[in-house]
Amino acid sequence: MDGKLTQINGPLVRAELTEACIGEQVRIGKLNLLGEVIGREGSTALIQVYEDTGSLILGEKVEALGHPLSVELGPGLLGQIFDGVQRPLLDLVQLSGDYIPRGVSIPALNRDKKWLFNASQTLELESIVSGGMSLGTVKETELVIHQILVPPNCSGRLIWLAETGSYTLNEPVARIKNEQHTEDLLYLSHRWPVRTPRPFNRRADSIAPLITGQRIFDTFFPLLKGGKAAIPGPFGAGKTMIQQQIARWSDADIVIYVGCGERGNELVDVLESFPQLIDPRSKRSLMERTIMVANTSNMPVVARESSIYVGVTMAEYYRDQGLDVVMVADSTSRWAEALREVAGRLGQMPVEEGYPAYLASRLAAFYERSGRVHILGHEKNNSDSGGKDPVRKDQGSVTLIGAVSPPGGDFSEPVTGHTKEIVQTFWALSKELADARHYPSVSWTESFSEYVAVTADWWVANVHPDWLKLRAESLSLLSQAQELMRIVNLVGPEALSSEQRWVLEGADLIKEGVLQQSALDEVDSYASPEKQFLLLQMMLIIYHQGEKMIVLGMSVQALKKLPLLITAKRCKSTYSSEQTENLKQFIIQIKSDFQKYRLEYTQELL
Amino acid sequence: MIFKNIALNIRRSYYEGIECEEINSERTRTVRGLEYRQASAAHGGLLFMHSVPGIAYGDQVIVTDHRNHKRNGQVVQISGELVTIQVIEGTDDLDLERTWVRFLQKPFQVSLSTDVLGRIFNGIGKPRDDRPPIVSSLKRNVNGAAVNPAARAYPKEFIQTGIAAIDGLNSLVRGQKLPLFSGSGLPHNRLLAQIVRQAKLLGEESNFAIVFAAMGISYSNALFFQNNFESNGVLGNVVMFINQADDPTLERLILPRTALTVAEYLAFDEDRHVLVILTDMTNYAEALREISTEKGDVPARKGYPGYLYSDLASIYERAGRIKNRHGSITMMPVVSMPSDDITHPIPDLTGYITEGQIVLSRELHSKGIYPPINISPSLSRLMKDGVGKNDTRDDHIRVANQLFAAYAKAQEVRNLASIIGADELSEEDNHFLSFARDFEAIYINQDEQQERSIYETLNISWELLSILPASVLSRVSEADLARYHHWEGHPGNP
């Protein structure tokens, strides 16, 4: 169905186009620009265009493509970098040079590459297959076994399954006869519309924490696999660094990084550094488990809106294979601003700060695509594989972490406000901490996590039974110190008793020895749960031992001069996560040192 | 939407009016070759006219007024019946009946050649220096195209500006965009001139160029820079684009794009390392607000349009490096913060796009410190990969972190001292006070003509850190302390 262009207003155009569905993709004009129908008024279609609309001429042809914005899902996604409509950017460089051209359509996945398909040993011909079932596997990278899934909305009798061997994405690997008695060909990849969540069997409870190796998160404000978190922070608070740390170190199977309206140079940093980074567990390059979606701030605004959905759809696809996926979206504020820009041009009534009324519901619907689920089709195959097929877990998860960039650092603005109501883990970044170069600048007073009780079970089972106690104790120490600082700021430190001044020192120990973590320091960049626990334990032991000394009458000044204090603060970058024995040794030494001090001190007194 | 209908009505009444007049006279012809005379309304820099076939969104337009003066315009909106043209020189004085509009059927382009060096242009690339226009077969759309992120190269070559507060704490690297957040009356122009004078790459004689884009600045400021370039003998490497405060406002919207198209040409075709100075982005954003209000766009914050972020990004993101090309574009925009408010939309959105910011402080300025760089909110995001062992010195990052942390602590102590009095402070706190005083007077403060090498800067850093005992210096390593720290208790303290 062809139509005619009737109005052009920035990224928004109108066309005489009948029989176009809302959400349908269109191609516009000689330039062949890609757009999406977002509304209909009689025979007029409102179209948002994913590319710059400069040089479009009124009356040019508009062609409806008959399908909504969808992404290609199959082997070859990992290690790629896509734009907001899933065009592979590395291939685009080859095709058309350093600048992004318009109107180019290029398949997301390589058509020529042959993949070694291991056909399922347990699927029988003539059996009924349905959406989500696995037809076999492809080893996509050294880290990831890729399950070839029957598309979710597809089912029928399996007539033919390809033998184990090498196939390109253009060659079918199975044939099924559907209920209408026609035959469908299944390939290594399939397409899925990005605005429709992929179906699953049912939701499951999230039980395991996402270990990021960052102490302020894992120990203080944990996130679960399948949870949703937000990182709000004014500019310069270190948001980007934190997200990169999560993408680097978190113990997920797949990481999807969506740079949505972000800086080009920072994206290049990720692009250049990730291939060189080694996954701490598998010792392989991190790119083997990473997909990137990049829409820098100068790329078309409408593709910024879609980039988030492109990312989360790929995340759901890997979830459906039984994997734990983390998607980091930087930043959802830019996404909301893209919504606002389009709404503004549509002349929709603005509600808060120019944002459209549907901002909150769109945000909630996006975050709701996270979660841990029992995956579709798992119970129907693999149930008695008997080790013939690679194991596919019956649950998978999508963890969503969205950065928020509140204008002027004001957390009461609409995007931060709505996000705060939706997410369960809130990592609030503070400009004051960042200005004092306290990194990660996560505020321990404004942040929260609703997952502490669940994660406590995991810590108790895997690390130490005292975890919850130590966590609570250190948080209370920090808040006591904050209270005392208020007094100090009013009347000066002289007004405090020795015990109170030692509380301030104790809080400093926790801040400098535990909370502050340098992403740039090789050793400190990642801390295993055990190292995290030991560091926390160490600081609290020093604090408690010090308390006893103060009761004996030792001055805070004298205590502060003890060399072990500064050594303890440096432990985080002295001993790596493998050297926890040294940390334990040091803790023992601290105890005996204090024993010694106590003796010396009491003797002096005598 | 409403004004469009008004415009249509105006057009209709105009036609109704002329129907009674003589046919075939010059007054009733609406087409003259490729020119049209159907303008129906004009206000606030926008000209509305009946749509004609074949015109494209973003096309350049020449508007000829009744005095036969030519103005430049651009198609900013097309609907079935009406085309909206943004007239760069403004719509004042336009007589609709006697205004002719010619569509050039191409977007705004600028002619490119190395002859641009040493020249002065206005916002659309016309000479302002009484010399002939640039003639070249190479013309490019001023809007440029987005660089494919996969084709970018990561900036990591340290630029030594000779200014301690920048080199030591907020290092600039080639291909970075680092704005100066300033305020009225602060010496950002002097600082920029000093940077232009001193900036160099360690151990390299570079093939550089400066693109200077001035939007809505005063004549005296424009002259200041011009004289400065001249007295440094760099004028032959400078291209200036100037729109003065009394020049047309809308020209400010296209000026940075013209300037950056020239910068891209110099960097990526001619292999030059280009430093782009944009001053002042606040004037740019205000011009954008002016036209968006006129167009009837829904305002977001403080009346600025919702697309201010995307629009600013389309300018700032043109800085950078590209793989396999030798040149680079480093950008230093000036953003004056309205009433010194860093949360105002313009500095705020700028901060989210640029890789850090250098913030000038009125407080330091009034203490007589030059450059008055307030280091606490200042930041360079690309510093981490541009400094250190192979680039400057191994301890650079740690020293910078320690200085930041110590100065932050010193500020706390200052606040405390202002409440309880300096006499009540502990010995350690007094060290911090002396540190802060010396840090401002010796480290931040430097002469306008003084050029400090990065090694000098680092050595001064250690002089200052030596005011503090080693026990409070947890950001530097033991090895650093052993090598550079020489604390013997501070003079003046028992």
Characteristic terms for this protein:
heterodimer; A: Elongation Factor Tu (Ef-tu), domain 3; OB fold (Dihydrolipoamide Acetyltransferase, E2P); Rossmann fold; 4 domains; 10-stranded mixed beta sheet; 6-stranded antiparallel beta barrel; 28 strands; globular; B: 494 residues; alpha/beta; 8-stranded mixed beta sheet; 34% helix; elongated; disordered N terminus; disordered C terminus
Descriptive account of the structure:
The complex is a heterodimer of chains A (606) and B (494). Chain A has 606 residues and is α+β, with helices and mostly antiparallel strands. Chain A has four domains: 2-68, Beta Barrel (Elongation Factor Tu (Ef-tu), domain 3), CATH 2.40.30; 112-188, RNA polymerase II/Efflux pump adaptor protein, barrel-sandwich hybrid domain (OB fold (Dihydrolipoamide Acetyltransferase, E2P), Beta Barrel), CATH 2.40.50; 203-376 and 393-460, P-loop containing nucleotide triphosphate hydrolases (Rossmann fold, 3-Layer(aba) Sandwich), CATH 3.40.50.300; 467-605, Bovine Mitochondrial F1-atpase, Atp Synthase Beta Chain, Chain D, domain 3 (Bovine Mitochondrial F1-ATPase, ATP Synthase Beta Chain, Chain D, domain3, Orthogonal Bundle). In chain A, strands 8, 18, 19, 20, 21, 22, 25, 26, 27 and 28 form a ten-stranded mixed β-sheet that branches. Chain A has a six-stranded antiparallel β-barrel with strand order 1-2-5-4-3-6. The relative contact order of chain A is 0.10. Chain B has three domains: 2-106, Thrombin, subunit H (Beta Barrel), CATH 2.40.10; 110-384, Rossmann fold (3-Layer(aba) Sandwich), CATH 3.40.50; 396-484, no CATH class. With 494 residues, chain B is of the alpha/beta class. The longest helix of chain B is centred in the C-terminal third of the chain and has 25 residues, at 396-420. Chain B is elongated, with a radius of gyration of 27 Å. An eight-stranded antiparallel β-sheet of chain B has the order 1-2-8-5-6-7-4-3, covered by helices on one side. Chain B has an eight-stranded mixed β-sheet with strand order 10-18-17-19-21-15-22-23, sandwiched between helices. Chain B has a three-stranded antiparallel β-sheet with strand order 14-13-16, with no helix packed on it. Residues 1-25 and 490-494 of chain B have low confidence and may be disordered. The interface between A and B is large, with 83 and 89 residues.
